[in-house]
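Title: Comparing notes on inverse folding

I've been comparing how different people in this forum approach sequence design from structure. To keep things fair, I'm posting one structure and asking everyone to reply with a full sequence. Here's the target:
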């Protein structure tokens, strides 16, 4: 690398660091895990983070505009006042809860604002199930592909099973899984980049489902314009060259 190119690279890195500070001040900083060719959010995008995005861009989500988000009851039921800010219609217990009630387009826009993009199915699958960190990592073996994002069992994830989270769980409170990532399995379904006509893919299951939905073969297509209390997001970021 020439000297000027080196200086440019350093300045570019500094600008990115400053941009990160600008968009995430007050929050636990952007916490990303570097994998092969990309980095991924360690946690699902939180209410705090999505609120910053909405404030910065002037976004009013479809759930807010259209009278509230959805929950499963007798079929899909709309609930007045439910939104990413108030996932169950009241102030959230924690702004570190995942942001839910967001459509695929809103999720995609968030990731672009954060300097990333929605993960592809291949990226999300690689990150969720195949350990890639070097060295000894809390019981996970480099190169091994696990049945659950939490490893050999779903224990410690926020499903509808026996756990300490009746509904959503705050970022970082469940058991960390493969690659040190939280909640790739359960808590909130996560929008992926993959589209099939009007539908988009979601991965990982949610607090409302059991452990089977945490597995790779359980991904579900949902209408991209849909939003519900079970569906959130996280982003990936292309490696800097
Ligand atoms: Ca999840």
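Reply #1:
Here's my take.
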């Amino acid at each position: 690398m020439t000297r000027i190119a080196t200086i440019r690279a350093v300045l570019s890195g500094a600008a990115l660091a400053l941009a990160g500070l600008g968009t995430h001040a007050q929050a636990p900083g952007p916490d990303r895990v570097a994998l092969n060719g990309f980095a991924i959010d360690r946690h699902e995008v939180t209410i705090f983070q999505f609120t910053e995005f909405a404030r910065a861009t002037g976004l009013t989500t479809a759930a807010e505009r259209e009278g509230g988000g959805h929950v499963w009851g007798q079929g899909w039921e709309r609930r007045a006042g439910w939104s990413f800010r108030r996932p169950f219609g009241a102030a959230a217990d924690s702004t570190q809860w995942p942001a839910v009630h967001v459509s695929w387009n809103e999720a995609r826009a968030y990731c672009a604002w954060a300097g990333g993009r929605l993960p592809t199915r291949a990226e999300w699958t690689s990150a969720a199930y195949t350990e890639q960190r070097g060295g000894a990592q809390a019981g996970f073996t480099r190169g091994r592909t696990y049945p659950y994002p939490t490893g050999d069992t779903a224990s410690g994830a926020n499903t509808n099973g026996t756990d300490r989270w009746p509904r959503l769980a705050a970022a970082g409170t469940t058991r960390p899984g493969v690659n040190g990532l939280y909640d790739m399995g359960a808590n909130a379904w996560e929008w992926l980049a993959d589209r099939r006509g009007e539908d988009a893919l979601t991965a990982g299951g949610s607090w409302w489902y059991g452990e089977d939905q945490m597995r790779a073969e359980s991904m579900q297509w949902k209408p991209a314009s849909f939003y519900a209390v079970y569906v959130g997001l996280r982003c990936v970021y292309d490696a800097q060259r």
